[in-house]
Structure formats: structure tokens, C-alpha cells
Write a structure and sequence with these properties.
Helix content is 56%, strand content 0%. By secondary structure, the protein is an all-alpha fold. It has one domain. The longest helix has 19 residues. It is globular, with a radius of gyration of 16 Å.
Length: 126
């Protein structure tokens, strides 16, 4: 009998995947380094270009990164993958949110509210 060997992802693997996803997200949504750093609570903005520093999913920064990925997933679903439309939505006044989403998501509360709003609009409210 052959025993099945499970290759569970290591913490380093998880960090690399999360970091790469955030790097791609930042490019797709045209987020500046400063905006990304602000969203991730003043974290080191070098994360977008660094291969030597990864985001730990269990850290506060990691949890915010995961929320940001949820935001991206919702925008992607709502706009059918149209990155230009997602970028426009992010930088336009939203009367339901009471502000411009890119400004709102630079605080933890604003990020949470914006993600909840988008998920509700998609019909996937928590």
C-alpha cells in the first residue's frame, strides 16, 4: 500500500501567496504604494516590490490584506473583471458609503464597512 503524503502549506508558503495576491491586486486596482501601506495600517510599503518580506496572514496586516482581497473579489464579480470599472468605482463618490471608497478603506472601520457593503450588493452578505 502506498501512503498518501500530504503537502500542507507552510506558514512561509501562505505568506508568499498572500503577498503575491496583494501585489497583483495593487496593480489591478492601480493602488499607489502609499495607499496600499495606509490600507494595511501603515505597514512597510516595500511589500509591493519586495521578495524578502512577506505578509503574515495571522498578523493584523495579514487580516487587513485578506479583507482587501475580499473587496477585490467583490469588485471583480460586480464588474465582470473590468479593472477600469473597478478602479473608477474605487475613486468615485459613493452616496451609500458616504465618501470615496479609496479614502474610506484607508481606515480599518472603512475597509470593513466597504467590504460588507460590496458583499451585500453581491448578495453575499455575511
Amino acid at each position: 500500500m502506498h501512503s498518501k503524503i500530504e503537502n500542507k502549506p507552510t506558514l512561509l508558503d501562505k505568506k508568499k501567496v498572500l503577498t503575491r495576491a496583494i501585489q497583483r491586486l495593487a496593480i489591478e486596482l492601480a493602488l499607489s504604494r502609499q495607499e496600499l501601506a495606509s490600507i494595511l495600517c501603515g505597514s512597510d510599503s516595500k511589500v509591493i516590490n519586495s521578495q524578502s518580506r512577506y505578509i503574515d496572514p495571522s498578523s493584523i496586516e495579514g487580516q487587513l490584506a485578506i479583507l482587501l482581497l475580499r473587496l477585490y473579489k467583490s469588485l471583480n464579480a460586480l464588474f465582470g473583471g473590468n479593472t477600469n470599472q473597478s478602479q473608477l468605482w474605487l475613486r468615485s463618490e459613493n452616496k451609500h458609503l458616504g465618501g470615496i471608497p479609496i479614502d474610506l478603506i484607508q481606515s480599518i472601520e472603512g475597509l470593513v464597512i466597504t467590504v460588507q457593503y460590496l458583499e451585500a450588493v453581491r448578495g453575499n452578505a455575511i
